[in-house]
Specification:
This protein has 357 residues and is α/β, with parallel strands linked by helices. The chain has a seven-stranded parallel β-sheet with strand order 3-2-1-4-5-6-7, sandwiched between helices. A six-stranded parallel β-sheet has the order 10-9-8-11-12-13, with helices on both faces.
Length: 357
């Protein structure tokens, strides 16, 4: 007898987190492609959403919009959802009391980062409160809580009593992520310098990246900067020894632009040591960029042998070496490491998880 796996696609129409929204779409496509015989993939969506993912069988359109659903689910009200096998690619899930044994009703949620606990100052207070509240509900009602790395599986135990319900299922780079044919033109339109590294991480971590860039005598491009953060980041760069003119701060870029910038980089430097899935590092692996990263549990689980992992103090020396004779070797290692991640593989593990439940 087949099963219907119902995926919560809350950002299908209204994107709140672009990385998580893309991950949800890619995972859903993977679930459809790897579905066991006689099993289907359905969607649960807000009132105003239409699903454009080929292969989705049935769509349950709820009576509330996404914002209203977030508030409703936070207090445990889930009208119109119904029972069944429910998979949420984020914490946005109808977490209510249910009987998994007799009603075949199960709920799995996904936690991509612990920023609301480890770095609450980087998020709006309302977001912090919502995420913390939803993890508390997950601790009460979720049948499984999925995290992308073993390091996060250990860390999340500090914030929620989940016992043996934690499961590790990695994410992957965006499906089809590669340097576009017009990469040179895109870099030119973004005013990229001829030679540069790409930095990603929190402001505290970026200081180490800027210092490494200064030591290696190379320009630094910052991705995903919060709007209005340019002056502050320029000051941090200058204090770290990198002149303001050599620090190029960019906000959130479309996937094609990110691919063009990463593919043209001499190296990618990951400075974030928090428990958070490294979206940009995954993309850097996908395009074969040499990677130097601050050693952390998350980076050991994801980048691993695909790059160089060092302490923050050793970043300058490691980057200088990566930009020299080690560049080609590191690029090959990154490309090889990227093959360890795919949404099809993640989807197969999701199907196995729900079968085990």
């Amino acid at each position: 007898m087949g099963a219907q796996l119902r995926v919560v696609l809350d950002q299908i129409a209204s994107v709140v987190d672009a990385d998580q929204a893309r991950a949800a779409r890619d995972l859903t496509a993977g679930l459809i492609a790897t579905a066991p015989r006689d099993c289907t993939v359905d969607a649960i969506v807000p009132s105003s959403a239409d699903v454009d993912i080929e292969g989705v069988d049935e769509v349950r359109k709820l009576p509330l919009g996404r914002r209203e659903l977030a508030a409703s689910w936070q207090i445990g009200l889930a009208p119109g959802v119904g029972a069944g096998l429910i998979h949420a690619p984020s914490l946005m899930a109808p977490l209510v009391k249910h009987d998994r044994l007799h009603d075949n009703h199960q709920i799995a949620v996904t936690v991509w980062d612990l920023n609301a606990w480890e770095a609450p100052q980087t998020l709006p207070k309302s977001t912090v409160a919502w995420q913390r509240g939803m993890l508390r509900r997950a601790a009460k009602h979720a049948d499984a809580v999925i995290v992308p790395t073993h390091a996060m599986a250990e860390r999340i135990a500090d914030f929620a009593k989940l016992g043996d319900r934690v499961r590790v299922i990695a994410g992957a780079p965006p499906e089809g992520f590669a340097a576009p044919v017009d990469a040179v033109g895109r870099r030119r339109s973004l005013s990229m310098p001829d030679r540069y590294i790409v930095l990603s991480g929190s402001q505290d971590g970026l200081e180490h990246g800027f210092r490494a860039a200064a030591a290696a005598d190379v320009d630094a491009v910052v991705m995903d900067a919060v709007e209005g953060a340019e002056p502050q980041l320029a000051d941090i760069a200058a204090a770290a020894g990198l002149p303001e003119r050599r620090a190029h701060v960019r906000g959130v870029l479309p996937a094609e632009d990110r691919a063009a910038v990463l593919a043209g980089a001499s190296a990618f430097v990951a400075t974030n040591a928090l428990a958070a899935w490294p979206w940009r590092a995954m993309e850097a692996l996908a395009v074969g960029a040499p990677i130097v990263a601050v050693d952390s549990g998350m980076h050991r689980d994801t980048i691993a042998e695909g790059g160089v992992l060092v302490t923050a103090d050793d970043l300058p020396e490691a980057l200088t070496e990566a930009l020299g004779g080690a560049a080609h070797r590191l690029g090959v290692l990154a490309t090889d490491r990227a093959k360890a991640f795919s949404w099809a593989s993640s989807a197969e593990r999701v199907w196995a998880l729900h079968a085990d439940l």
